[in-house]
Amino acid sequence: MCLIETDIDQITLSVPNIDGMSQWDRVNQIVDELRLKGTLGPFSEELPRNRSYDRAIGWGDSGKNIQIMWRAGELDYDLKQGLLIYFDATGKRLFDLYTNYEELGYRWQELIGKVYDLGGHVTRIDIAIDVYNSDVILSELYQDVKDGKIQVKNQNNQTPTIGEFAKNFETTGITINSRSSDAYGRFYDKRKEQIDKLGPFYERALGFKSWIRLEGEFKHKLARKIGKQISDCDSFNDLNELLVTQIISRWKLIKNGELLKLWHMLEIKSHDGLLVTLGKDELKSFTRSIRYFFKWWWS
After folding, report:
1. Angle between helices 108-117 and 89-101 (to 10 degrees)
2. Cα angle value 295/296/298 (rounded, 5°)
């Protein structure tokens, strides 16, 4: 049986400074408003991951997986830079792990909404659709696209730039657009990635015959728009449909004049609320994942 799950993989948000408030006070206000200390525990002062900033606090492995970054100076440039809130893929899972395990009733959608309430916005968001037990073979998909048997069309009905996603000289997927574009797509073999790397979801990968990831990396004004749409969603089903739509409506795969079977199934299942949430239970039970997320805690 083909199962489909969607989620945010990583996210970056920006929050402006406030006139008359010190940047350190603003940092602590953000920590309180976003409930980060209550959700993740005490933070540590770290070196920022983004070189445009010179101070940071963080959580996770060496304080790198989740960070709030800012410039320490008081010049107009420093203040206009604002503060950057960064969750890498592990940091996002760490947040989910804490909120699910502690049953806090606080989810990442609410966190995004609070950032918009603070006058901020999303600057980058990676959306992932995971498809399990599909019959699609990505190397064949890439060849069919290359040979013109399958057409990829964007929202303007134009053909975007298509590239090969390869590891160790083996085709494991396709890319759409360039990495520097506002919308960059990666469709690849997540099962192979997790098994080859002994990744945090190694056990999950072994449990399925196939695991395809359809991933969209969105930045700048597009990310800001998607973030606002996420914060305005009224239900979990509406949210899932929004996330799926960002990928399957932006890049349509067409064969013989019709949507690819997988695209049609994604459209129907997301609209009808038939997506699964495998990660919710696994976050509590995967010993490997817990060690991966919490190796900093025991050090």
Report:
1. 110
2. 70
For residue 111, give the nearest of 42, 33, 44 by alpha carbon.
Answer: 33
Least reliable range by pLDDT among 76-80, 136-140, 227-231, 240-244: 76-80
With tokens 């000289």, the residue in question is 169
pTM exceeds 0.85, yes or no: yes
First to last CA, the chain: 41
Residue with tokens 């303007």: 156
247 vs 154: CA distance, rounded Å: 10
Beta-carbon count within 10 A of 213 CB: 19
Buried b (16+ CB within 10 A) or exposed e, 261-276: ebbebbbebbeeeebe
Cβ 59 vs Cβ 50: under 8 Å: no
**Contact criterion met (CB below 8 Å) for 51 and 81:** no
Number of H helices, E strands in the chain: 13, 13
For 163-173, write each residue's pLDDT tens digit: 998 877 788 89
Tokens coding 167 = 């590891």
Any residues with CB less than 8 A from the CB of 14 and at least 6 apart, and which?
A: 82, 83, 84, 85, 120, 121, 123
